[in-house]
Amino acid sequence: MKIHHIGYFVNDIEKAREDFKKIGYVEKSRCIFDEIRKIFIQFMRFGETGGGTIIEMISPGEGCKLFSEKFRAQGSRPYHICYECENLEEKIRELQSENFLLIREPQPAPAIGNRRVAFMYGENVGQIELLELKTGGKEF
Ligand code: NI
Asked: What are the tens digits of pLDDT across the range 58-117?
């Protein structure tokens, strides 16, 4: 697997975007609203040229049930690392046999060109995101 992005929870995506720019990030994608999860998502890349680390800013919109009040109160911070894998189902089975729990079934992620993602949890690793390897020629 290879690391695709670091997921950042942010309470205010507009303000976070401006602050990330101050430390050297550029916008990699437009800010989109995921209607299913009711979250705003935007990808940023570190550095002006390609190849820099990608972060995913996620902020809750109206009606979002993904993050508890307690979670939100802790403010902006990284909360998951996303790993790209060749075969999502195979990787899930492999990690399940290593005692990782599947906490969110594979589903298309509109912010990443509808590539499928799943979330798993390892007792000593915490939450991880698995992203199916891209099949087309799209950037994501
Ligand atoms: Ni992510």
From this structure: 999 999 998 999 999 999 999 999 999 999 999 999 999 999 999 999 998 888 888 999
Q: How far is the CA of 135 from the centre of ligand 1 (A)?
A: 18
Residue 97 Cα, ligand 1 centroid: separation in angstroms?
A: 23
pTM, to two decimals: 0.89
CA dist 44 and 53 (Å) reads 8
Radius of gyration of the chain (CA): 15
What separation in Å is there between the alpha carbon of 55 and the centre of ligand 1?
A: 8
pLDDT at 139: 55
Residues 6+ apart with CB under 8 A from 87: 132
Ligand 1 centroid – CA 129 distance (Å): 6
pLDDT of 136 higher than 70: no
Tokens coding 25: 């990030």
- Kindly list the distances between the CA atom of residue 40 and the CA atoms of 31, 87, 89, 106, in Å, as whole numbers in the listed order: 7, 27, 27, 19
